[in-house]
Amino acid sequence: MSGSEEEEYEVEQVLDERMEDNEEGVKVKHYRIRWKGFGSDDDTWEPKDNLDCADLISNFEAKAQKEKEEKKARKREQKENVRKEENKEDSFAPAKKVKSESSIFDRGLKAEKICGATEKSGELQFLIKWKDSEETDLVLAKEANLRIPQVVIKFYEERIRWQKEAALMDQD
């Protein structure tokens, strides 16, 4: 180093991880970092070796592993429920499945947008994309209406189509 010391920043939160090639072409794990005193616009991707926050990395990895396992369990449960529904004449969703979907919001994830909608088991469901994540989940529309009404309204507003001719005919 030159005569001056390099300024050291404090890590506030580890947000994400990915693998990147280093100068030698070797895959190295990088973490998306939120720096203390800075906003999301200043988040950066840093190699693990540049970071001095083993506890935050460990907490992030434990949380990420737990979320990964929960997502696998939800997908497995959804597949099982679909199989069960195919074998039943009744089309209502089991209470266990509804609990699983409503607990998605209890994990602290924030909805970024609704990607689409579908009808499943006679009920409208939204495919929701979460902020700071590549994950999407199917959520009952009535749960989304209660938990994220502004996101639901935005979804509908983006898709509404006015039929001018039909409106003019109704006036006659």
UniProtKB/TrEMBL annotation:
Which InterPro entries does the annotation name?
Chromo-like_dom_sf (IPR016197), Chromo/chromo_shadow_dom (IPR000953), Chromo_domain (IPR023780), Chromo_shadow_dom (IPR008251), Chromodomain_CS (IPR023779), Heterochromatin_chromo-domain (IPR051219)
Q: What GO CC annotations are associated with the protein?
A: heterochromatin; nucleus
Residues covered by region (Disordered): 1-24, 67-101
**Where in or outside the cell is it found?**
Nucleus
Keywords of the record: Nucleus, Repeat
Compositionally biased intervals (Basic and acidic residues): 67-91
Statement: the UniProt record of this protein carries the keyword Repeat: yes
Indicate the segments forming the Chromo domain, all copies. 9-72, 109-167
Q: Could you tell me where the Acidic residues compositional bias lies?
A: 1-23
Q: What name appears for this protein in its UniProt entry?
A: Chromo domain-containing protein
Organism classification: Eukaryota, Metazoa, Chordata, Tunicata, Appendicularia
